[in-house]
Amino acid sequence: MSMHGGAPGGQTGRYGKGRTRIASADEAAQRAENAEAPKIPHLLGRIVELFAAHKVALITTVVLVLVGAALAIIPPLLTQRAFDDGLFPVDASGAASGPNIPVLTTLVLAMIGVFIVSALLGVWQTWLTANIGNKVMGTLRVRLFTHLQAMELSFFTRTKTGVIQSRLQNDVGGVASVLTNTVSSVLGNTVTVISAFIAMLILNWQLTIIALVLMPFMVIAQRRVGQVRARIAGKTQESLSEMTAITQETLSVSGILLSKSFTRQRSEIERYADENRNQISLQVRQQMTGQWFFAMVNIFMSSIPAIVYLVAGWLVTGGVADITAGTIVAFTTVQARLLFPLMGLMRVALDLQTSSALFARIFEYLDLKPAISDAAGARPVPTDGALGRVEFDRVSFRYPDADGESRPTLDDVSFTIEPGQFAAFVGPSGAGKTTVSYLVPRLYEASSGEVRFAGDDVRELSQESLMTHIGIVSQETYLFHATIAENLRYARPDATDAELEAAARAANIHETIASFPEGYATVVGERGYRLSGGEKQRIAIARVLLKDPAVLVLDEATSALDTISERVVQEALDDAARGRTTIAIAHRLSTVVAADVIFVIVAGRVVEQGTHAELVGVDGVYASLYRQQEQRPVLETPSVE
């Protein structure tokens, strides 16, 4: 029994840079990322279509944004009246008459009422946008995940897992923020700026001109601060990502085993410490960068009201305008609220471009066409007497990304495996043996010729039905971070405990499982790290037996095991092969000497076929390979079972 320590926690994938909206980022970096987005025809129409199901909620949201922005201008106007008519009213002769409490009370209650209504509308708007954005995001995420499940195997062999995960998590996750960060922002800022300027004009047009002259300098200064800090923030984020990657690499089970076995803990600690020092430096720079800019901006922002006071004094003294104290207070209140809406409007084009890029990257994946799909009218596998027969008729195959001038992986290969036969494929590395195991379940499509299953061309059968009748045990066993029972039930979720035990007994693993303290409830750990190689492989065999396929494909299922484990697993495989067609891709010829037929593949062609005795008697390629392996010294290793 080999329960190696505790089960490790789940590993965080190393996804690389997420491709999504860069919050408060350097605009140049954001534009560069947007430029890399794919060009999707009719993109706007497809985006609108996504939100079509939420038409009423969207219209309501737009109305709420417009009303909320308009209401924000009312309090300054009420403030003017509160000062002029409530706090400092004057009689007909122009003399101060003291506060008018009834008028002041009415105006204050009106202001409080506007604040309450604005707050309620804001909550309602947030609820609507959150619902719409997250529902669209959820729908897109499931659509994309479903579409990726239909993609052919070659797509995943040529695409980094981190890139796929980034599309699902970062790009799709950014959809929810489009409404709040883009649509609501554009609408709200536009209405706020227009309403504010109208209110300022109503209050005093001369002061409005002064504010318009001074405002651009403040906006430009504020943007400059944001850009400088954004560059530092980008470097800080990259440093954090690097620290996360170091943590994932070195503190995973594999990483710990590697660093301990090569005594590299000190160097790993130093690598982490170096990046940590870099992170500290960047954090300090981020906090300090632009402090002088901020000081200047704060001075400027504080100075604008003072300048307004001074200009108002000149206007009143010169008799140019009749400006009251309430007008000055209300005007400076409105003017102070213009900075951030104006800065937001200056990013409108970039925000819209960023949102389009976000959707373009999602639609790029949704528009991918699976290279292998069910034909129109695809039928289920026939379950008559031919079930289990596998035929290759002049099959040639070249991998999709292979050079057109290179030798095909399989070249004009023909053979027939009858139901119940044990067929082995042997040959040198790279000869094309594993490719045969990929073409039978149609994980790849033959370039020419026909692959037939149960007498029918696999291209005329539904993929789901085809895979139902095929079980695969590969060299690299994949187990989930779950219990043994859950890993077994992946083949048949409705399997009973008795059926699990029967499959485990057939795979020669039940006694081992029973010896564990938690039995079938034992958590196997990340990728099955708590189990030995032989134990993982036999659990994989039990999982396939629970599926009970007509055809069993063994892709070098014992090549990574030690001699003792191989012997135990081979016994389980021999039992699993009884009564079903078995296709074994073998590196060690000793595992297939009892095969009904052995096909020898060299450079993509079947050069020999027959039983072990027949092929040894021919004294050809097979006999040469067999002699080489027989002469190779075999070191017996202690059992880890």
UniProtKB/TrEMBL annotation:
Transmembrane segments: 56-79, 100-124, 193-221, 292-317
PANTHER family hit by this protein: ATP-BINDING CASSETTE SUB-FAMILY B MEMBER 10, MITOCHONDRIAL, ATP-DEPENDENT PERMEASE MDL1, MITOCHONDRIAL
Stored InterPro entries: AAA+_ATPase (IPR003593), ABC1_TM_dom (IPR011527), ABC1_TM_sf (IPR036640), ABC_transporter-like_ATP-bd (IPR003439), ABC_transporter-like_CS (IPR017871), P-loop_NTPase (IPR027417), Type_1_exporter (IPR039421)
Boundaries of every ABC transporter domain copy: 390-628
Protein's recorded name: ABC transporter ATP-binding protein
Keywords: ATP-binding, Membrane, Nucleotide-binding, Transmembrane, Transmembrane helix
Subcellular location(s) per record: Cell membrane
Record carries keyword Nucleotide-binding: yes
Residue ranges of domain ABC transmembrane type-1 in the record: 59-354
UniProt xrefs under PROSITE patterns: ABC_TM1F (PS50929), ABC_TRANSPORTER_1 (PS00211), ABC_TRANSPORTER_2 (PS50893)
Membrane topology: Multi-pass membrane protein
Lineage top rank: taxon: Bacteria
One annotated GO molecular function: ATP binding
Source organism per UniProt: Agromyces humatus
